[in-house]
Specification:
single chain; mainly alpha; two-stranded antiparallel sheet; 4 helices; 4 strands
Length: about 130
């Protein structure tokens, strides 16, 4: 069973990774950069931020000419607004139900016993117009 012993630290790291990511994602953006509150909601869909309002002028000069400003976070939050499956979560998110410990422990046990379940074979591509 030396292989299992070698994998145990990796499993611990994988198990703790979501906690570390949650801590990173819940922190406020540094240096006055925008946060997700710049995404609006009109009752039906997410509204991307106004990039002009996020524009920060450049403080650098290149060959005597001022460099263009940068709208930090504009592309990120515009993409996020386009990808939201349930935009109402911006205003009233669903409560987190928590993780199911029995499901996680059974997955680890199957891994240790080399009884890994293979994922279902699915396809995300669809042919239309045929």
């Amino acid at each position: 069973m030396p292989e299992v012993r070698e994998m145990r630290p990796r499993l611990i790291v994988i198990g703790l990774l979501p906690l570390a990511l949650a801590a990173c994602m819940s922190a406020h953006p540094p240096l006055g950069l925008p946060d997700a509150s710049v995404i609006g909601f009109d009752g039906h869909e997410a509204i991307p931020p106004d990039c002009a309002a996020l524009d920060q002028p450049a403080t650098l000069i290149d060959a005597g000419h001022a460099r263009p400003g940068m709208a930090f976070g504009c592309a990120t939050y515009t993409n996020l607004a386009a990808m939201l499956a349930r935009p109402a979560d911006l205003v009233q998110p669903q409560p987190y139900a928590g993780a199911e410990a029995s499901m996680a422990s059974s997955a680890v046990r199957r891994f240790e016993e080399n009884r890994i379940k293979q994922p279902n074979v699915t396809s995300t591509t669809a042919r239309t117009g045929q």
